[in-house]
Amino acid sequence: MDLTLRQELAGRSCAGIPKGSPALTPDQAARLALAVPEWSSSGGKLEREYILKSYLSGVRWFAVLADIAEQEDHHPDAFITWRRVKLTLSTHTVAGLSENDFILAAKLECAFEEFNTK
């Protein structure tokens, strides 16, 4: 894991991306993926499943991540089940991955480290 890159991405904000902008190339996505190895990348999407201690813990984590996503105006697809929260990130305007996906993933990883220690 590249902690420096994770911190750099987490310190940035998601930017508006004009429709028709290109998605990241596979090489660009692979480089940014080093910052968030907990996430898998395939088919133009990033995915991560968080495993928590209880259903309510999952719901509470979702509330935290939803606030972050709203602040960044970049929203994941989410699925919540017993003790699990599964997220999928992609950027619809580029029909694939953008830097915004990796920025949000890095922010969520930093927040989850803090959330999970409470």
List keywords for this structure.
alpha+beta, Gyrase A, domain 2, four-stranded antiparallel beta sheet, 4 helices, globular
State the total count of DSSP E strands.
4
* Rounded average pLDDT: 95
What is the percentage of strand-forming residues?
Answer: 15-25%
What is the helix content? 40-55%
The name of the CATH topology is Gyrase A, domain 2
Helix count equals 4
CATH-scheme architecture: 2-Layer Sandwich
CATH superfamily: Transcriptional coactivator/pterin dehydratase
User: How many independent structural domains?
Assistant: 1
The neighbouring-strand order within the major sheet is 1-2-4-3
Low-confidence stretches: none
> Gap between N and C termini, in Å?
23 Å
Radius of gyration, in angstroms, nearest whole number: 14 Å
Structural category is alpha+beta
Q: Any idea of the CATH class?
A: Alpha Beta
SSE succession: HHEEHEEH
Shape call? globular
How would you sum up the major sheet? 4 strands, antiparallel
Helix and strand topology:
Elements: H1 3-10, H2 26-33, E1 40-42, E2 45-51, H3 55-72, E3 77-81, E4 84-89, H4 99-116
Antiparallel strand pairs: 1-2, 2-4, 3-4
Helix pairs in contact: 1-4, 3-4
Explain what you see.
By secondary structure, this protein is α+β, with helices and mostly antiparallel strands. It has one domain (3-12, 24-116): Transcriptional coactivator/pterin dehydratase (Gyrase A, domain 2), CATH 3.30.1360.20. Helix content is 44%, strand content 18%. The chain is built from four helices and four strands, in the order H-H-E-E-H-E-E-H. The protein has helices at 3-10, 26-33, 55-72, 99-116, and strands at 40-42, 45-51, 77-81, 84-89. Strands 1-2-4-3 form a four-stranded antiparallel sheet, covered by helices on one side. Strand 3 (77-81) and strand 4 (84-89) form a beta hairpin. Helix 1 (3-10) packs across helix 4. The longest helix has 18 residues, at 55-72. The chain starts with a helix and ends with a helix.
